[in-house]
TrEMBL record:
PROSITE patterns: SAICAR_SYNTHETASE_1, SAICAR_SYNTHETASE_2
Nucleotide-binding as UniProt keyword: yes
Transmembrane regions listed in the UniProt entry: none
Principal EC category: ligase
Domain SAICAR synthetase/ADE2 N-terminal, chain residue ranges per copy: 6-231
Protein name: Phosphoribosylaminoimidazole-succinocarboxamide synthase
EC number in record: 6.3.2.6
């Protein structure tokens, strides 16, 4: 497979075309941003962790019947993926209150939720990824009802699989964001699953092992990514 011109450069990854029209190559960077790009920095080694972790997680999810964009890991930062049309919804699942949920609803961080929740943000940087519901998504033509139903079903199945996967590495999955795409008419999981997009806390000490260390200037950012890498045996 031949890497052709760059299609897109995002905040965390570069995306390249290939000689196969159905395949892209994603290249994970060490760049980190938070608060819709207002805070910028570098997390050394992050790209390697996020690439490897996403690939291992996506292969695990495939085995559990969730279709993903994963094709082949090409190097420690590069992976071939199916080229999808991204559904412009950030799908967020929560098991424990944290971040914007805690702030908005006045629920202390770390409070276990009685049931997992699902929410959508409209993936639009200019608008700051506003919170929307499925009626907005339908009204704006972002997805069909059938697609929303499939996305919802897959997102909860991803949560069940990830909770167990992280638990065996003594980490609690607090919340995460995933994205889906359309590939030849089918909804598949795309983008990434990494400490950039998940909140992961040590089960015993509740130490944060994710991007909140960067967002909140907690220090030990690189170490946290390396700790996740080590615990998952990546
Ligand atoms: P952002 O665009 O939010 O800054 P990234 O730096 O992670 O994010 O850039 C990767 C971009 O590629 C994202 O916009 C993501 O939605 C998109 N993407 C992820 N997987 C695929 C895929 N399989 N096909 C097409 N686009 C994808
Ligand atoms: N998240 C993400 N990208 C975003 C927004 C959120 O990956 O643009 C992830 C974030 O890492 C966390 C979850 O989604 O695991 C829920 O984030 P929240 O809504 O609490 O927002 P935040 O507190 O990060 O602003």
């Amino acid at each position: 497979m031949k890497k052709l011109e760059q299609l897109y450069e995002g905040k965390a990854k570069k995306v390249f075309l290939t000689d196969d029209p159905d395949v892209l190559i994603v290249d994970y960077k060490d760049d980190a941003t938070a608060f819709n790009g207002l805070k910028k920095g570098t997390i050394s080694g992050k790209g390697v962790v996020n690439n490897r972790m996403t690939n291992i997680v996506f292969q695990m999810l495939e085995k559990k019947g969730i279709p993903t964009h994963y094709v082949e890991e090409l190097s420690d930062r590069e992976t071939a993926v199916k080229k999808v049309e991204i559904v412009p919804l950030e799908v967020i699942i929560r098991n424990v209150a944290a971040g914007s949920f805690s702030k908005k609803l006045g629920v202390e961080e770390g409070t276990k939720l009685l049931t997992p929740t699902l929410e959508f943000s409209y993936k639009n940087d200019e608008l700051g990824d506003p919170f929307i519901n499925s009626y907005y998504a339908l009204a704006l033509g972002l997805a069909t009802q059938e697609e929303i139903d499939t996305i919802t079903k897959y997102a909860f199945a991803v949560n069940d699989a990830l909770k167990d996967y992280f638990a065996q590495a003594n980490m609690e999955l607090i919340d995460f964001k995933i994205e889906f795409g359309r590939f030849h008419g089918q909804i598949i999981l795309a983008d990434e699953v990494s400490p950039d997009t998940c909140r992961l806390w040590d089960m015993d000490t509740h130490e944060k092992l994710d991007k909140d260390r960067f967002r909140r200037d907690l220090g030990g950012v690189e170490d946290a990514y390396q700790e996740v890498f080590k615990r998952l045996g990546l």
